Amino acid sequence: MNNFQYSRAADVADAIRLLAANPGARLIAGGTNLIDLMKENVERPSRLIDISRLPLRKVEETADGGLRIGALVPNSDLAYHPLIEQRYPLLASAILAGASAQLRNMASVGGNLMQRTRCAYFYDTATPCNKRNPGTGCSALDGLNRNHAILGTSASCIATNPSDMSVALAALGALVHIARPSGERTIALTDFHRLPGDTPHVDVNLGAGEIIIAIELPPLGFAQNYSYLKIRDRLSYAFALVSVAAALELEGNAITQARIALGGVAHKPWRSLEAEAALRGQAATVDHFSHAADLLLAGATARAHNGFKIELARRAIVRTLTQAADATPQSQSHKKIA
Amino acid sequence: MADVTHEIAERIPINLVVNGVRRTLDLVPWTTLLDALRDHLALTGTKKGCDHGQCGACTVLVDGRRVNSCLTLAIMKDGAEITTVEGLASDGTLHPLQQAFIDHDAFQCGYCTSGQICSAAGLLAEGRAADADEIRELMSGNLCRCGAYPNIVAAIQQAMGRP
Ligand code: FES
Ligand code: FES
To answer: Which of A269, A215, A248, A287 lies closest to A71 in space, CA to CA?
Structure first.
């Protein structure tokens, strides 16, 4: 780890002021990803601004029947919060599919959105990486790319976003509330993370001096028909090869609303409004789910080692939608896939 | 990569209550809680395995919650109560988890064991595991290279009061 200065922010305005006054500074909350990256010399902040004591730990009901979640709520507290368990079980399930109990105790909701790819080349400072060192090239394109993206890739980067929580938040239509030097702004979670394009070093749409202060969930929680299915190389404590968050509203066997988001396959949680629209008004059948999977995976491309992900994702989408329709969500403890 | 400071960082005084004893430390900011415990307080029961949050050997309880001390900056925990494996026994009586690990032969080399036991103490406090599958899932942040997993699960079940 490089030597750095340390400041403890007194409030959000103080954190914004400290960020502005210290180019090269980073915010730290749970630290689970940032400290790891600092130990690898991937991140070398001149100063850490500790925001972990700021009063952003509430889960509150909003006027329209949704929830506002403070950016510093620990991942585990959110997954086990009664209102999340009851109204947004898809989110609880996705959070519990990620990391370990210890890391979930430490990691904040805002930090989860900010976590960086686990691409091995991004972590290895001896190799070129456009995300770590813009302009040096992408080692994954012709390297070991079994874990890499199949959707939304660019010639500069094929890294994936590692978050499970964000996949569920994307499906649920979450909003991100951001404090900035001149007030606040709100952005859809699906617009918060970026595709790599030719600027893969910019993961998220967060400007200088901006801080995530809360996540907002709209009222519709899909608490009846949902599932989060995460496929990985070992049954726990591993990043997704492919994950699927599926949420349906049904009238009888007819789909009135569908949401599907994919993890492990792109630089951001992957949704297709076209695929979701194609399911609306249809019967909840494997044929219709397969058609939605085709639409979601339209344009998927593979490199040398990750071609298996396309068929894996196709099957996982159908399976997860079936679990959602049957109201038999995937358990994150009992790992048999129903 | 830019803007790396070359100033000599000041040491920052912090207070921790470690296993019930108040300790004052002067630390440079980049000292992890793990290094503070092992190198500054000579509490070497907590182990450094990976130093990257991947193995759980460094697990301790901070204000009653299990965390990876290798990914925790000590200065950020100023004022916190820390419990390490050295603080689990009371008055010469082993913690039920410690006794259960002995009863079930739940270790071989022992390197992961203090992390396993502290993690299991956190698991019991959380109250979220009701069966063996849930114990396995919620203990998945603790690796055991000796493969003592079946006995670790049995030991935790004993400490939970389940047959
Ligand atoms: S030493 Fe902390 S998790 Fe391995
Ligand atoms: S007992 Fe040897 S690593 Fe667990």
So the answer is: A215
